[in-house]
Amino acid sequence: MHNDLMLFYSFYFFVILLILLTYGQQTIIYVKRGDTIELCDNRTTFIYAYEYRSFDGKKNLILEPTRHERYSNPYRTSLLRITNVIESDSGQYKCPQDDIEWQKLQVYVPVQHVYLTNLHTSSHVHTMVEGESLDVGCAADGSPRPAVDISLDKNGTIPTIMALANGIQTPSIVNDQFKPSVYEAYRIIGLTALDNGRNITCQVDMKHIDKKLILSTTKQLYIEFRPNVAEKSKKIYCGINQTRTVNCTVIRANPPYIRYSINGLSPSVIRRTYGDQHDFLYTFDITPTSIEHFRSFNVTANNSIGFDTCTYELIHGGVPDAITHCTTDTYTSNVTITISCTKSYAQGDNDGYACTLFKYNDKPNKKMFEEIARTKSCIFALENFHEPVEFRVAAFNRYGSLPPNTYGYVIRLNEPILQRETPFVNKRIIIIVGGIFGGTLLLFFLCCLCGACNRDQAKLMNKADYYHRTKYPHSSTESEALKSRNDETISHLVPNGNDKRPHQVSLMYLNKIHINNPVR
């Protein structure tokens, strides 16, 4: 029973409170400055006087419409009309013949200007440095005093926003534009680099008058912060005369203009840099040439706010150098073939150094290089074979190995002898040159043959003369006489052929004539 009574009284007081709140809200009449408003009921009355009381209680007047230009009673009733209302018209009005109810009139001026500024920087409202708090001020005009709210758009972080009540003086004029009716300051704590680019909004509203009376201004946060690098600590394994590419990556920085400097590394080791050296990625090649170059070094990334450092440790250790010399012994034994290779530089791992023998396969369905042997001595003994084969020898250690297809030492055994086909152009040249050379030889042979025949003729004539002089010695006078007579005798013998006298001299000259005039 007692609980039921308590529940009833609670519900009763709640209803009374709701009625009072609703009734109180309904009695407030809002009117925009410059508009016309009508108060009180349109009832018949003979009293045309209205009591006025300001909201702050400092003014208490009796208003007679006939004595004011803006006040009137157009219907000769209890209705009061006020034209071109101003802020001083706001207050409570009591109508004639109504001793209890007061009507509340509120003249408002909509917000026309909203201004958001950084309290500590005159240039930009949104500029700050990471780790520092941001103090902002929001000012607006409008009457009565509008409500102000500061907010940040959501991005996963929730900075603390607190109002500053002490030490903030409201300026008389804001931005040389308006006189503020409200000026509130806020401090935002906990902003980081992740908040860069977020929007900060100052919103001013008169929702209690009209839900549409909302005005806001938004600006973007520009937070300056030092560079933040990814490579805080990194080990780089490299061999002597080997090249490694070093990257120093800046994750974020604002301002984004970065200056880099390399510390603790000899300039002779740095071989090349890539790209724009003010970007968020600084890349360069290093090639140590001696054991003294292996040490710790760092790359510093700087901007106008601060710096961060990429730290590296250059450790002597890399894939071994390529095999450059091997010998093949196929004569000592008829059973085995021995391949002996000179070890290359182990690049910091002598214990794990070994040589690998690969066999090259040109068939598409098989692995190109098949490992067939591995040894620390770099000496391979294989069974003797006769088919053509190609081997590659590569060195490896715990850091890896160079690819055998590029750096492997090539060994070819039992290679077939292939006759190179002469190109068509070369064949033509050979034919032409051979023809010229053969023609030259043929011409030379013919010339030699003609010369030999002439020499043989001369020898026969000389031999006949010598024979004649030896067997028939005569003086020159007798010979001439005899020659003349014999010519006449021959001239008689040749036409008729009847003279058959055996004369030795004539026969001898006939033979001589025959010799001197050979048949051609």
UniProtKB/TrEMBL annotation:
A Gene Ontology cellular-component term: cell-cell junction
GO molecular function annotations of the record: cell adhesion molecule binding
Keyword Glycoprotein: yes
Main location: membrane
Topology of the protein relative to the lipid bilayer: Single-pass type I membrane protein
CDD domains: Ig (cd00096)
GO biological process: cell-cell adhesion
Transmembrane segments: 6-23, 429-446
Keywords attached to this entry: Disulfide bond, Glycoprotein, Immunoglobulin domain, Membrane, Transmembrane, Transmembrane helix
SUPFAM superfamilies assigned to the protein according to its UniProt record, in alphabetical order: Immunoglobulin
Compartment annotation: Membrane
PANTHER family listed in its UniProt record: IRREGULAR CHIASM C-ROUGHEST PROTEIN-RELATED, NEPHRIN
Protein name: Ig-like domain-containing protein
Organism whose genome encodes this protein: Rotaria sordida
